[in-house]
Amino acid sequence: MPLLEVKDLKTYFSTGDGVVKAVDGVSFSVDKGETLGIVGESGSGKSVTCLTIMGLNARRNTMSMGQALFNGEDLLTASQARLREIRGNDIAMIFQDPMTSLNPVHTVGTQLIEAVTLHRDVPKKEARARALELLKQVGIPRAERRIDDYPHQFSGGMRQRVMIAMALINNPELLIADEPTTALDVTTQAQILALIEKLQADYNSAVIMITHDLGVIAEIADDVVVMYAAEVAEKGPVERIFRSPHHPYTWGLMGSLPRLDTDVDRLAQIQGQPPSLLRPPAGCRFHPRCPYVMDVCRKVDPELAPVGDDRRHLQACHLDEETKEREAARLLGAFSTEASAAP
Amino acid sequence: MIRYIIRRLIWAVALFLTVTLIGFVLFYLIPADPAKFACGRACTPDMVKKVAHYLGTDRPVYVQYGKFLGRIMPVSFHGGFHLKSPNLGRSFVNRQSVDYTIGQAAPETASLVLGGLVIWMLIALPIGILSALRPRSLLDRVSMTGVLVGISTHPVWLGLMASWLIGYKLHITPIAGYANFFHPLFAQPGGPIQWAYHLILPWITFAILFAAVYVRMIRANVMETMNEDYVRTARAKGAPEARVMRVHILRNALLPVVTMLGMDVGLALGGAIFTEQVYSINGLGYQTIQALNNYDSPTVLGILVFVCTSVIVMNLLVDLVYAWIDPRIRLS
Questions:
Q1: Do B232 and A56 touch (CB under 8 A)?
Q2: Is A84 on the interface with B (CB under 8 A)?
């Protein structure tokens, strides 16, 4: 049984202007110890999906449907008390901006200890010792002194390490990382990713990594879910997605990556803007921006279907198999000299 | 830290001198002769001149100001350098020591202001927090309307209405007057219970305007803090709502309230003039008005000195307290 199984998840927010369908039929699963990458543009619904799983959306004007089965238990129907038991304990989440994610008027130690004592009935000394241990594991130098410092005395990278420490302090089975490195510079990014990978191995946690950066996905993900406009465009194992992408959006994403081995004046862009989730386009949501758009795309929203015989690799596009293979090959051929285009 | 305090003290002295100098000059510019007023209508110009000389008002402004400063200083150079107690002079009108006048009036104003402060915080905190938790609910709309009414209603009108309705018509509280906390003065009620009993209506009148302002501010601060990322982190850790509110939200949202409280108290100690007038409380505000009407410069300036000092002290205290409770400031 997978650790987390999300089935047809939908989250709708009713606003003054209408109903915003932030997540509209998303399904995926995560196995114990493996890493799932969720990639997409801003506003594609990646964060809201995970906030819905954790039950962290505002309760007013929010409707969630579908299932999020964690070890068989549906989190969407669980009680608030049960969710509080799970949060920070079995499932932990870290967020994008480390500069504002820690309470500025409490020490780092206090906040780490809080994470422990919320879920374990241990004396404060023990909790503090555990906090110290985690701070050392995430690589905070002179942890004994730093544990009593306030967040503003740490740099951005250090604060994110503290957040990771806080998330892993209770050995969660699943860590959800919502763009943990977006607000950090590239070298710090590399360090943080390496840290997450190492701790994942140490604690045998599963990780859901939300990002808009394909480089991060290539680095650490085992499986990938590509989201567009609140739906899943394509999903599958990471090698399949990178070697043989089967959706025009994925091609667009890959094509817009800057490369060291080519020399271009302008990066390839996906023309157009992400659609409004208040009134999404009819039919396939990507059709206004798709260079391969056909008539059927404007009317019918494609379902997720397997690529050939591979049941793990799914995509939602009306294009025929042949065209997709050809385009995927062309794209990758433009990239590497290996030209390993065949699926 | 020490350098900070010294800087603040120097600034305080400069502020003090500026305020008192301006007050002095303004008084000097008023086209009325305090000596003539003190002397009375029946005085001849000769007698007025004698009174002016006695009071010292025939001297140039800078001499008068210099004497004023000399009186306030705790040291004296007269006949050698020695310490002396600072005093604020004597009233032009009744030769009563200004120190004494302030000593009588200040406790009454303090009773009004400090009691009012407790009441306004008791009103503003729960209403502000609950309104922030349930925006656009019935409670929220009612309290925001109440805020508008509270800010718009003039304390004099409110005081008179309250005094008439509750004091006169319903006989629930006294109509006006002040009762001494410690012992009854001649022909007046006294003791703690009478003190509180006489102050209920003044407290509420005084508090309503401040409560309205604070409800708005607390509501805005709490609503803003509720959207902060670290509140989301606390929930993601599995903290129950009560804890999130107490440890994370309020601890941050109410920091600015501390600053405002300090400043407002400093200002209000200067004399809750309207409330004192309506309820005939002989506080500092009341005394100021009397003294102004009598062109009684020493009394007005004496009260000015007192208020200036209390505002400066309160502001300094507030800064120190704030530095203590906000680690971002303390450690920078």
A1: yes
A2: yes
The answer to whether residues A116 and A262 belong to one domain is: no
Residues A113 and A156 in one domain: yes
Instruction: Give residue A29's pLDDT.
Output: 93
Work out the average pLDDT over A289-302: 89
Looking at A188, A208, A225, the residue that finishes a domain is A225
Question: Tell me, what's the pLDDT at B66?
Answer: 83
CATH 3.30.499.10 fits B99-330, yes or no: no
pLDDT value, residue A324: 84
Q: How many structural domains does chain A have?
A: 2
Best CA proximity match to A128, nearest among A118, A139, A116? A116
CB contact A90 to B (< 8 Å):
no
Mean pLDDT across the stretch B99-114? 88
Are A151 and A265 contained in the same domain?
Answer: no
From B239's Cα to the closest Cα of chain A, the distance in A is: 7
Interface residue B242 vs chain A (CB under 8 A): no
Residues A136-160, mean pLDDT to the nearest whole number: 93
Which tokens go with A290?
Answer: 């798709």
Q: pLDDT above 70 covers what percent of chain B?
A: 97
- What is the spatial distance between Cα B5 and Cα B11, in angstroms, rounded to a whole number? 10
Q: Do A207 and A259 sit in the same domain of this protein?
A: no
Boundaries of domain holding A88? 4-225
Whether ipTM tops 0.90, in short, is no
Eight-class DSSP state of A70 = E
Work out the angle at residue A242's Cα, subtended by the Cα atoms of residues A238 and A247, and round it to the nearest 5 degrees.
Answer: 105
Q: Which residues of B touch A104 (CB under 8 A)?
A: 230, 252, 327-328
- Please give, rounded to a whole number of angstroms, the shortest distance from the CA of B282 to a CA of chain A: 43
Please tell me the predicted confidence (pLDDT) of residue B187. Answer: 65
Name which of B229, B238, B327 is nearest A87 (Cβ-Cβ).
Answer: B238
Put simply, whether B228 touches A (Cβ < 8 Å) is yes
Task: Name chain B contacts of A56, Cβ cutoff 8 Å.
Answer: 232, 235-236
Is A326 part of any domain? yes
- In terms of pTM, does the model score above 0.90? no
Whether residue A168 is found in the same domain as residue A311: no
The reply to whether A154 touches chain B by the CB within 8 Å rule is no
Contacts of A105 in chain B (CB under 8 A): 251-252, 255, 325-328
CA A36, A37, A43, A44 dihedral sign is: negative
Amino acid at A309: D
> Is A241 a domain residue?
no
**Which residues are within 8 A (CB) of B177 and not within 5 positions of it... i.e. 6 or more apart?**
B188, B198, B279, B280, B281
- Contact call for A103 and B248, based on CB within 8 A: yes
Between A52 and A326, the more confident residue is A52
A102 near B CB under 8 A: yes
Q: For residues A178 and A170, is the Cβ–Cβ distance under 8 A?
A: no
**In this complex, is the C-beta atom of A166 within 8 Å of any C-beta atom belonging to chain B?**
yes
B236 touches chain A (CB under 8 A): yes
Q: Is residue A146's pLDDT more than 60? A: yes
Q: Is residue A244 part of a domain?
A: no
Q: What CATH number is attached to the domain comprising A28?
A: 3.40.50.300
The residue ranges of every structural domain in chain B are: 2-83, 99-330
Regarding whether A130 and A53 lie in a shared domain, the answer is yes
Is residue A96, in this structure, part of any structural domain at all?
yes
- For residues A103 and A214, membership in a common domain is answered with yes
As a whole number of angstroms, the distance between CA A50 and CA A69 comes to 13
Beta strands in chain A, from DSSP E residues, in sequence order: 4-15, 18-30, 35-39, 62-70, 73-74, 91-94, 174-178, 206-211, 223-228, 231-237, 305-307, 310-315
Is the pLDDT at A342 greater than 60? The verdict is: no
- Does residue A94 sit in the same domain as residue A131? yes
pLDDT at B270: 64
